[in-house]
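User: Please predict the structure of the protein below. I'd like the answer in structure-token form so I can feed it into my own downstream comparison script.

Assistant: Understood. Taking the following sequence of 216 residues as input:
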Amino acid sequence: MACGASEPPPRVPEAPASTTERPALQVQSELGSVDPEAVTRVFHELEDRFAKCQQAGLERVEVLAGRVKFFVRIAGDGAARWVYLEDSELGDRETEKCLIAAALGARWPKPDGGEAEARYSMDLPLQTTRPPSDWSSDKVTAVLAKNAGALQACTGSSASLRATMYVGPGGRVLAAGVATGSKSDDAKADCVTAVLAKLRGLPSPGSWPAKVSFTL
């Protein structure tokens, strides 16, 4: 018997490599882009409509004025999907809704790469020679506390809304407005405005209206 190494074990044939390729991970941004100068031109074209909104509000509050900040979601075809006021110092819900409606009805530049978002701030200037008296929020804190239940029923436990209102002679609320900060807050803003309009027990500013802003 000859001596030698044992024979190697038989080779097991390898399984053929899979020809199925995994799909490449595709990441697509939700938002496109829009020319800010073109957006500004649209807002300038809306100035006459905005002025009419303010003029209607001046019939209720002669010192109506203030800064507003628009948020516009623009669809691929240039239509506004939604509009709301991220911030508002205007203090009149009806005028705020009029401004929003004007922006909703406008034709916006078509975005590139999907829907786009645009922001724009503007002032509705004072139309009287005398501005309203500027109140700090502590002027109305006590009355707001008495109505906290009704206000919280409007806003919910986690919401935070910024409100502005005008107070006339005798402590009567002349108008109130709310910066919604979200497209889903319209109903909350309407509810808050209705509660603020019915406030009683506010101090009187004298013969000239006062303006006050506060957070709820």
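That's the full token string. The first strand starts at residue 66 and ends at 74.
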